[in-house]
Description:
Layout: H1 2-13, H2 22-40, E1 50-55, H3 61-73, E2 78-83, H4 92-99, H5 115-120, E3 123-127, E4 140-143, H6 154-174
Parallel strand pairs: 1-2, 1-3, 3-4
Amino acid sequence: MERFLHTSYDQFAGRSTVPDFLPLLAERFARQRLQAxxxxxxxxxxxxxxxxxxxxxxxxxxQMALGFFTHLAGDAAVAWxxxxxxxxxxxxxxxxxxxxxGIDITGEYPKPWTDEVVRxxxxxxxxxxxxxxxxxxxxxxxxxxxxxxxxxxxxxIRPIRDDLERRVRHLLDxxxxxx
Length: 179
């Protein structure tokens, strides 16, 4: 556990803009990684499907998809997100676009993907991370070709948000989770 906490801390220390929150982010990320490792090693199988949303910066598309998934699936499934080059913070326009739908993603934060998190997923949804996205056998992969909301205003993000909602609803149907 200590190793996971320290390596999680190191993941955020180099790019943190708010150092006061480093211990909290490290603890939350280490907890997610340990839950994933328990699933990979067969110590935790509750039958809930696990979906991982990956994009480059983990600050827009993947966070919005995670927000819809968590909101719609409730406790019937698990979802995580990650990025190959995570930003320091979530795109504020993406946060505002989701708030228009009554979904608060302000508690989320950009984080890197790790091998144990990817291996724990039943489905990995990639969104523009290209060759940087990891591929492991036995996992279902799907690429969602969507515009990157980085630098866009809320009105420009709305179509991306709406497309993400449609795709997440379809994914939930495919994996047998009632929205």
